[in-house]
Amino acid sequence: MEISIDDINKRSEPYQLFLDSIKSPETARKYKNALHSFLKIVPVKLYSDTLNKTPKDQESSTLASFFVKLSEKDPNLVSNVIATFIKNERKLVESGEMSSNTLPNHIKPIRALLDANRIPLHWKSLNRLLPRRESRSDDRAYTRAEIQKMIEVAPDITDKLIILLFSSGGFRLESWNYFTWKDYVPFKNKDGSYKGGAMLVYRGDPESYWTFITPEACKTLEIYREKWNSEIGAYPRPDDPLIKAVKYPVIRILNARGIKKRVDKIVTKIGLRPPLPPGKKRHEVQLDHGFRKYFNTMMRRAKVNYLDKEDMMGHKVGLERHYERYLEEDFERFPEYEKAIPFLTISDEERLRFENEQKQQEIEEIEQKNLELQDLSTRIDELEHGPKARSAGYFRDMFDMRDDSAGRILLAIFYIWFEMRATEDEKRTIWKKIQDAEKNGKTFSVSEFGKSDGLSWKNLSSSTKSHDNS
Fold first, then answer.
1. CATH assignment of 144-346, among 3.40.710.10, 2.30.30.140, 3.30.565.10, 1.10.443.10
2. pLDDT in tens, the chain (470 residues)
3. What does each C-alpha distance from 183 to 85, 186, 187, 240 come to in angstroms?
4. For the chain, what are the domain ranges?
């Protein structure tokens, strides 16, 4: 590998430094548009008065280079330019033409350009000029009934899949610019049915994280995969986009803008996007963010652990998440997500099926635990009252009676009689009673032997006589 002079020279260009500082392609697109809109309105006279030259064209790279040079020459002047820009934008906010939440997004690209070129400005004082952000508490999530209507009117499997992935994964709109088939990891039950799946959001980005999707979404994704095969003649490869654009003869990603257009058509069709009345700036439900709010609401209703929920939504909560995973066992937060699957499942039929499967699984788990407890009880009984335990007790008693020959003879007769005449169940029952009597300092009642057919006094007498005759 060689380092070329051209690459080094490119790195010295202000606009290239700005682009290199942005990781997300979607963020880069937004920043480039916003920055160009700002640079175009900077008065050319400022450049001629301060730098004694003016831009030769209106290209972003040219304007960015001049603005950076102006910042190096007179940072106070540039601060005043930005402050004036903010004040003019505030007028749009005050008139209701712009949201106060939008204005900071017009300033971020300017700061990114100057930060990338190591131009220090007092941003704290500039940020104080920004209007107070509006609360979005009046925005609500989609309801399950509304999402069900979307599924009903969705024209094809692609739209159904978009809605189910959006609502069960809770990711942001720009995530669609990243998804490929290798970002999807399905989980299956022993019978081959879907248990759920994992989705890697923002692969290759420092902000990447894992979220999960429902069995319902996994089944729809499998149907979409079969449709892909029927159209292309081959199944999607790992690096292929998760959802492809339909208007191109070759495989191309259906990006965030394409996804948004499709969702907008469906949401409008069910009557959720009517024209806004004068003075109203946004709809009751945000077009794409309504799915994310639905995800968040359902996770809270399912009482999913807060930190796990935040991690599944890509919020920074200090949990480890930047490593590769390939199997269900690698996803330690999936059991928490499973709590929310009944809440996130859209189809009533699918939800009922899943709940029945869960109940059956719980019954099987209880039965398995009962078997394990029964096996454990049997093993304990074997250790405490089985042949080896009784034999050890016999030798222990023989040792304790080492100075009593007659007692040892009687003990030997009793042991032979006890082991030969009684059934194994009788031996264990009586042995347990003998142990309990010793433990509690009581005398064992010999009447217990009479309850056994094999352990009668007649049999004990015959055993003693045969021993004497011998």
1. 1.10.443.10
2. 566 666 655 567 899 999 988 877 778 888 999 999 999 999 999 999 999 999 999 999 999 999 999 999 999 999 999 999 999 999 888 876 777 778 899 999 999 999 999 999 999 999 999 888 665 556 789 999 999 999 999 999 999 999 999 999 999 998 999 999 999 999 998 889 999 999 999 888 778 899 999 999 999 999 999 999 999 899 999 999 999 998 777 899 999 989 999 999 999 999 998 888 877 777 889 899 999 999 999 999 999 999 999 999 988 776 555 455 555 567 889 999 999 999 999 998 887 877 777 777 778 888 888 888 888 888 887 777 778 877 777 777 777 777 777 777 776 777 776 676 667 777 777 777 777 777 777 766 656 555 555 555 444 444 444 444 44
3. 42, 10, 13, 10
4. 5-127, 144-346, 386-469
Phi-psi label, residue 118: left if phi above 0, alpha if psi -120 to 50, beta otherwise: left
Q: Buried b / exposed e across 240-260, counting CB within 10 Å, b at 16+?
A: bbbbbeeeeeeeebbbbebbe
For 121, counting Cβ atoms within 10 Å of its Cβ (0-12 exposed, 13-18 middle, 19+ buried), the class is middle
Per DSSP, helices labelled H in 55-214 are 60-73, 75-94, 103-116, 123-127, 144-153, 157-169
Q: Name the token pair of 149.
A: 């209507």
Measured CA to CA, the distance from residue 140 to residue 142 in angstroms comes to 7
Residue 241's φ and ψ, nearest 5 degrees, are: -60, 145
CA 282 to chain CA centroid, nearest Å: 30
DSSP letters for 250-275:
S--B--HHHHHHHHHHHHHHTTS-PP
Where are the alpha helices (H) located in 95-178, listed in sequence order?
A: 103-116, 123-127, 144-153, 157-169
How many residues belong to the chain? 470
pTM of the model: 0.61
**Cα 394 to Cα 372: distance, rounded to the nearest angstrom:** 31
H/E element, 44:
helix 44-51
